[in-house]
Amino acid sequence: MEGEEDEFERFWRRMREMERRLMRFIEEEEARVLKEFEETRKSLMPSWSYEGFLRPLSTVRDEGDEYVIYVDMPEMDRGSLEVKFRDNLIFIRAKLKRTHRFSDWSGRGGETEFREYKDVIRLPIKVDPRLVSVKCRKGVIEIRIKKPGHQG
Questions:
Q1: 3 and 71 within one domain
Q2: I need a surface site. Which of 5, 107, 128, 134 has the fewest CB within 10 A?
Q3: How does DSSP classify residue 48?
Q4: Checking DSSP bridges between strand 111-122 and strand 89-103, what pairing results, if any?
Q5: Max Cα–Cα distance, the chain, nearest Å
């Protein structure tokens, strides 16, 4: 009977280990699929709006203990820069130093004026504003967000 119990325990240990591995795999795959979906969604979004704003180019890098986000905003009025956080979202907005225009490419006439940058960046974690640093250099915004538990 004792040998059967040991075998039974070994069986359940193996089952728990398999379950743990499966859950880790599912979590990793879910994160990969969500990241790929977000990248695809963002690439399909228009980079400008008839409402007068441009969506700046941005990239999010996972550096292990922190996320580093670069946002390219040439000709931005630095004094108007707003970076706000809510849950896992970063809201970025800044006025342009001057209005930019281009004619409607569809051939229907008209002209669109751009006066500001606006974007929302989604992260896989909830942002704690106390763990954030924002720097601006030559029109590129660098946002560093420490991951929870890596405050150092």
A1: no
A2: 107
A3: B
A4: antiparallel
A5: 88
